[in-house]
Amino acid sequence: MYPADLKYTKDHEWIRIDGREAIVGITDFAQQQLGDVVFIELPEVGRTLAAGEVFGTIESVKAVSELFSPVAGRITAVNTDLPSKPEQVNSDPHGTWMIRLELASAADANALLDSTQYGELVK
Amino acid sequence: MSQNSATAPKRTPLHAAHLARSGRLVPFAGWEMPVEYQGIVQEHLAVRERAGLFDVSHMGEVELAGRDALAAVQHLTSNDAAKLKIGQIQYSGLMTPTGAFVDDLLVYRFADDHFLMVVNAANAAKDVAWIKSQLGAFEDVSFVDSSARYALIALQGPVARDVLQTLTGVDLAAIKYYWFAHGEVAGVRCTVSRTGYTGEDGFEVFVAPASAIRVWDAILEAGRDAGVVPAGLGARDTLRLEAAMRLYGNDIDDTTSVLEADLGWIVGWNKPGFLGADVLRRQKAEGVTRRLVGFEMVDRGIARHGYAVLVDGAPAGTVTSGTQTPFLKKAIGMAYVPAEATEPGQAIEIDVRGRRLQARVVPLPFYKRQRS
Fold first, then answer.
1. What residue in A sits closest to B36 (Cα-Cα)?
2. Which CATH class is domain A7-121?
């Protein structure tokens, strides 16, 4: 259910870390809770984020939620296809990335949940 | 999404049917109601393109009967109930003495001296107390809260008539918009009205609670090939907003007058006195200072209930309803704005969580179905 090669946060983001780079999205649990996603607002490339900092907004028909960065880092890319196809978050949550980060520190990632821990959290 | 309540939420007679279809149940107005089944967007589109089936059994029903029933309805509500023929329905307001809304409702004329009113679930207890408090002046009127006698099922969408017709001997084509008939649906005694809260053609079926699941399942079965799906309160809200139908507690309440809500068409100006009539007559003569309008976002963003509206940079009103609509695929909403800022095309700004986004006033409704 929750891919083992991703890490997770209690705020229901996932992060795929590859060396000093990482991509971030929201979990299947998060998209189920939100319902149909109709709007996503993503940040500018180049912004530096602290761990836990808000980097964007996601809205379903009924609700507004903020997006939190799982780790500290600098934004090197955003998924520019996403604002025009927000429904991708519902259909493929773990395959739909939102931002790419250059990590500030490798140590940050230790605070994240693995797939088993996250699976327990949302059970 | 959730709300705390000291008492367990009530369940409609269709509760088991919602569980069987994996409806996502949430607390709403003291009831446990399905907010969605497959998803709000799919259900919304199904209603616009085919049909959706809604459980609206949480709605309240109250009845007034007796020689003075018409006089009582005339006193309590804004519209002119004397114009109703037997079998006809009107949208109306249950009035405060200040011309605002205790509730909004549908008034059904069952007989010359017998009316049924369908009221909002969240207001049902308040409405009952209010109506009772007003009946002292009428000699021959009996009043009953008959909410528990009815389950209410709404089939809404362009195929609604054809699907429902396969289950009933009632000639549905002969029931005009805002009229009703009694008859059998799926072998069960029902009252069928051509009404709804979606902006589509459709019917609402009043049925005894014990037979509700039988009628519900029969409609879904009869409509399977035509693509009829169960639809939840989430889609009901986005559908009604596209059709610019007011939602009590959002767009209207006991502080908004009928004219401020731009519902002058539900005021019976020529009928004898009714609660709030003097205030409404004065507002009609002098004009209102604020009015409900529709708007579309110009900048990217979604306006939501409670967001501030600015005109020329100054705070000027509040968004009452707003969403990104699944069918029109636009961010729309309704808001109270100063009377001088109500013309279509008027530029306004919406404070979306600290950012001022451009929007413009547009005519209502946002969506109007093509009548065949």
1. A35
2. mainly beta
Size of interface A-B (CB pairs under 8 A): 44
Judge whether B272 lies within some domain: no
Judge if B44 and B77 occupy the same domain. Answer: no
Residue range B233-247: mean pLDDT, rounded: 98
Q: Are residues B67 and B142 in the same domain?
A: yes
Q: What is the average pLDDT score of chain B?
A: 96
Give the pLDDT mean for A45-65. 94
Domain with residue B87: its CATH number is 3.30.70.1400
Q: Read off the pLDDT of residues B151-210 as tens digits, 9 standing for 90 and up.
A: 999 999 999 999 999 999 999 999 999 999 999 999 999 999 999 999 999 999 999 999
- Nearest by CB to residue A36, choosing from B40, B301, B304, is B40
Last residue of a domain, one of B146, B168, B183: B146
The pLDDT, as a whole number, for residue B371 is: 73
ipTM of the complex: 0.85
A102-122 per-position pLDDT tens digit: 998 876 777 899 999 999 999
For chain A, what are the domain ranges? 7-121
> Could you give the CA distance from residue B268 to residue B258 in angstroms, rounded to a whole number?
12
Query: Which domain covers residue B294, as residue numbers?
Result: 289-362
Nearest-Cα distance to chain B for A40, in Å, is 9
Name all contacts of B104-110 with Cβ < 8 Å and 24+ positions apart: B104/B246, B104/B248, B104/B252, B105/B77, B106/B195, B107/B73, B107/B77, B107/B79, B107/B81, B108/B180, B108/B193, B109/B81, B109/B84, B109/B85, B110/B63, B110/B86
Tell me which residue in A57, A59, A61 faces B326 most closely, judged by beta carbons: A61
In a domain, B314, yes or no: yes
